């Protein structure tokens, strides 16, 4: 057999394979050698692109952000009604049933890496700010149609982001579907209060 051609291999493909390795073995068990073996290429190719394991992990942060954002935009792109966009986005952020695309253990494991590495922490912080900016844009659209009313969109978006991240941790930590659903409803209603939303979505908790 001849040597496998690598001329077509680019960063996105390497990152997709990295995701699979991390999914199976965690970041601790992930090595450049294991990823290269999975791809059937020389590890030097990965070193050429990422220089080190830390460099690869930092690129993974961006990859995970882009994957999450693409999932959001795919669900929202066909929606023109502000109410539909709000319902859909809150449904994604506080999904207790697994109906919507979710950030999984790989995403949350990446957060844990940031506690031990300042460079990775900075990359995660930049990712968070991008999510908050996305929220600001959505809130502005909701305000234009009178669906929401907030004095400070950045603060409101940051609070909603914090709720969604907290829910993600709870959902991936608890094994009690009924309790997870209750927490999801609580966070969703808290979000609507942050937005001063007078939509039919805003129903009081029992």
Short description:
This protein is mostly helical and 206 residues long. It has helices spanning 11-29, 32-39, 43-50, 53-76, 82-93, 105-114, 118-144, 153-173, 177-194.
How would you describe this structure to a colleague?
Helix 1 crosses helix 2 (32-39). The chain starts with 10 loop residues before the first helix and ends in a 12-residue tail after the last helix. 71% of the residues lie in helices and 0% in strands. It is elongated. The chain is built from 9 helices and no strands. The longest helix is centred in the middle third of the chain and has 27 residues, at 118-144. The model is unreliable at 1-7 and 202-206 (pLDDT under 50). It has 2 domains: 8-51, Homeodomain-like (Arc Repressor Mutant, subunit A), CATH 1.10.10.60; 61-194, Tetracycline Repressor, domain 2 (Orthogonal Bundle), CATH 1.10.357.10. With 206 residues, the protein is mostly helical.
